Automatic annotation (TrEMBL):
It comes from Haloterrigena salifodinae. This is Site-specific integrase. GO terms for molecular function: DNA binding. GO terms for biological process: DNA integration; DNA recombination. Keywords: DNA recombination. InterPro entries: DNA_brk_join_enz, Integrase-like_cat_sf. It comes from the Archaea.
Length: 111
């Protein structure tokens, strides 16, 4: 794992290897936490973007083989407000996101 300090105190940028990311996924307490790890690690979402995305933001690409996820207010380095951005969503992460729709998983009470 590689850490890089940011300008803010106690805040770091983190780079993990594929194996480290898989270990973190196995340590997840539930499906919801696993999806959050996948959205950050594989899709590249930032922590403030995760609560914004909903199932309606997932779109299949024109070729029918891939998916895009629309982040309504992503990071904007030119202003203080976010602007929409589309990110690639793998079939594996999309399959996990389908599971998250059930109320038990959304509430974090799944077994």
């Amino acid at each position: 794992m590689r850490l890089e300090a940011t300008r803010k105190q106690d805040q770091y940028k983190v780079w993990m290897t594929g194996n480290e990311l898989e270990e973190l996924r196995h340590a997840a307490a539930n499906h919801r936490d696993d999806l959050i790890i996948q959205l950050c690690g594989y899709v590249g979402l930032r922590t403030f973007e995760i609560p914004q995305v909903k199932p309606k933001h997932v779109k299949r690409t024109d070729d029918g083989d891939h998916y895009r996820l629309r982040v309504p207010e992503g990071k904007d380095t030119t202003e203080n407000s976010g602007k929409p951005r589309d990110v690639y969503l793998s079939k594996d992460v999309k399959a996990t996101s389908t599971d998250i729709r059930t109320p038990k998983i959304l509430a974090g009470t799944d077994p």
